[in-house]
Amino acid sequence: MAAAACVPVRVCHQEIVKFDLEIKAAVQDIRDCPGPLSALRELNAAVKEKFRHLRGRIQELEQMAKEQDKESEKQALLQEVENHKKQMLSNQAAWRKANLACKIAIDNSEKDQLLQGRDSLRQRKTTKESLAESASNITESLMGISRMMSQQVQQSEETVQTLANSSRTILEANEEFKSMSGTIQLGRKLITKYNRRELTDKLLIFLALALFLATVLYILKKRLFPFL
Question: What is the mean pLDDT of the chain?
Answer without folding.
Answer: 82
